[in-house]
Amino acid sequence: MHAHLGDRLVVESPSTGVVRRDGEIIGLHHKDGTPPYDVRWSDTDDVTLVFPGPDAHVQHLETEADDTPSGTGTAGDDTAASRTSANPGDIGRRVAEERRRRGLSREETARRARISPQYLAYLEEQPSDPSTATLFALAGALDTTAGSLRGGGVDRPPGQGHALLHPRLNDLDQEECRRLLSTHGVGRVAVTAPDGRPAVVPVNYEVVDDAIVFRTRPGSVPAAAAGDEVAFEVDHVDEAMSQGWSVLAVGPATTVTDPDALRDLARRAHTEPWAGGTRDTWVSIRPTRLTGKRITPADPPARR
Fold first, then answer.
1. How many helices (H) and strands (E) does the chain have?
2. What whole-number distance in Å separates Cα of residue 10 and Cα of residue 209?
3. Strand 211-216 vs strand 243-255: parallel, antiparallel, or unpaired?
4. CA 83, CA 69: separation in Å to the nearest integer?
5. Which of 26, 186, 265, 297 maximizes the CB count within 10 A of its CB?
């Protein structure tokens, strides 16, 4: 039997196969992932050391991490789970940020939440799906709510969190702007609407041969972009980390009418417009100006 942190230990009845008990594996004692395990049981929220018997099996957590068991360092080691490249999920980033804001070490936070420091390191550094009991335990340890750690309030506009203590606003070069635009996503186009009023509307866009293209309906507000110089913006806000970036493209917009070009755009499209319905009018923006900004923490002052 081999397990990773975050996997689920399931104990079944040998005769009926009915689940009698299950829990989240929050601590490993061997680097190869073999028993025993520290398990937080879902029915009691108790944490016990378990040597699984023949009626137990492991349900593996599907993550982007590799197959090497991680998080087997010593208690209080903030790098215990760093044997795999850090790729935190949203919950992990929120947990790490709340912990740092309160000046708590991993060891102290883990002690308060009754989990192992190596499991906390795993949660902070890898995409994970902690059990409800673990999430509530972490929320109590950090004096916040489980909803906040899950990302509650996502319907509110971003940017209501605390600003960085020492933010740094950097200009992005054109190469970085093009990389962030990527090949498709959701952006906003600023146009003069058919009624003559200014409008900013979100659209699903693609990047094809350095042109920003999107589908819409004839007579719609986004379709009014054609024939004018317009502004198109894409951004990303990491609410948990109070960081983000934005890219602004400015250039003339035209309606794509060439049949071969239309077939090529339809073939290369990654997604259907989220708004649904028939949207077969393609608008192309050729940027003549491409600028961007990024907010990051400032480098810590050098020690003398």
1. 7, 13
2. 52
3. unpaired
4. 9
5. 26
d(CA 136, CA 138): 5
CA atoms within 13 A on the CB side of 107: 7
C-alpha to C-alpha distance for 166 and 153, rounded to whole angstroms:
25
The DSSP 8-state label assigned to residue 224 in this structure reads G
Q: Are 117 and 110 in contact (CB under 8 A)?
A: yes
Q: What is the pLDDT of residues 53-77, one digit of tens each?
A: 888 889 886 543 333 333 333 333 3
- Using only C-alpha atoms, the chain has a radius of gyration, in whole angstroms, of 25
Contact, 127 vs 65, CB < 8 A?
Answer: yes
**φ, ψ (nearest 5 deg) of residue 47:** -110, 125
Q: Say which residue the tokens 């060439």 belong to.
A: 258
> Residues 229-275: pLDDT tens digits?
999 999 988 766 678 899 999 999 999 989 998 888 888 777 777 77
Extract the tokens encoding 76: 């209080």
Q: What is the mean pLDDT of the chain?
A: 81
Residues 286 and 252 sit within 8 Å (Cβ to Cβ):
yes
User: What percent of the chain has a predicted confidence (pLDDT) above 70?
Assistant: 81
Give per-residue burial for 244-280: e unless 16+ CB within 10 Å, then b.
bbbbbbbbebbebeeeeeeeebeeebeeebeeeeebe
